[in-house]
Amino acid sequence: MRPHQEPKPSDVADVADSVGQPSDVADVAHTAGQPSDGDATPSSWYPRLGRPARPSRCRTALLRTAVLGAATFTLLGAAGLLMKGPEHLPGLAGSPFSAGTAAGASTGATADPGPSPDLPAPVVDMSISRRSEDAGKTVNLTIDDGPDPQWTPRVLAVLARNDAKAVFCMLGPNARAHPELARQVVAAGHRLCDHSVSHDTAMDHKDTAYQEKEIVDGLRMIQDATGGAPVPYYRAPGGAFTPESRQIAAAHGMRPLGWNVDTRDFERPGVDRIVETAQEQLRRGPTVLLHDGGGNRAQTVEALERLLPRLKAEGYTFSFPER
């Protein structure tokens, strides 16, 4: 949709001015010698033209048409923006409304259709978890896309130095390729999360059978790599949850896991920006999204080095998302 442009004040005036131009319909009628429809309007109303004036109701009608037309375009444009979502409204960029349009992001309550009778029944809550399981001033660290042999050990080291715990959202093939790292995560007291097989961020546009295979195969790879360690969460790639994927995960004992804070560290915006974003967005909720896989994560490691001591100094404690 093209951005809507408000009509300029001059637009209506131009329409009104054009009424008196020789090319309009009434002028044609006048030139042809047709009656002026009983016009008794003083000629002084059109001093520029030096001719008898047309009916005042004609000018009024045309002005009314112009004004109503402008108002209609304004209302249609506003309606179109609202249909696209509040994140597209002027002045709301960067607000909580504009943060995270994916289902995994914290965007407020949405209607849940409930479990489908066509799928296995959930054995855990199938709503998306974002809150901490502990009360108070808490942070839930979640680390996606690993394990990675270069970055996961460094993330684990930073967490250990700060007595911090995290949820590691692993891709099945990465866990299978690096089972020693997957087991190291478990041994350090962190929790596991199934992050699918292919990291397909368009999963929500695929059929249910495809979604189920991505979720269940990813879960099995992680369990095989860790010797059957519990996997209490499932996070859809890019937050591409569907009611079906959430129910499939919950039927396998995994609570769907979202986030409140998106540091966008995968874009490598700079260490300062990652830290600032995390601190700014924590007012939205406690669950922070970070990455140890999928590329160079040196900025993420350095950001954790700075962020974790700062959070502890501010009175935060490290928790886990609700299961």
Strand-helix topology:
Elements lengths: L8 H10 L6 H7 L24 H29 L53 E7 L7 H10 L4 E5 L1 H6 L1 H9 L3 E4 L13 H19 L6 E2 L8 H9 L3 E2 L4 E2 L8 H11 L5 E5 L6 H16 L3 E2 L5
Parallel strand pairs: 1-2, 1-7, 1-8, 2-3, 3-4, 4-5, 6-7
Helix pairs in contact: 4-10, 6-7, 7-8, 9-10
Relevant terms:
single chain; 323 residues; alpha/beta; TIM Barrel; 2 domains; eight-stranded parallel sheet; 10 helices; 8 strands; globular; disordered N terminus
Description of the structure:
The chain has 323 residues and is of the alpha/beta class. The protein folds into two domains: 9-84, no CATH class; 103-318, TIM Barrel, CATH 3.20.20. Helix content is 39%, strand content 9%. The protein is built from ten helices and eight strands. Strands 1, 2, 3, 4, 5, 6, 7 and 8 form an eight-stranded parallel β-sheet that branches. The two termini are 40 Å apart. The model is unreliable at 1-56 and 78-101 (pLDDT under 50).
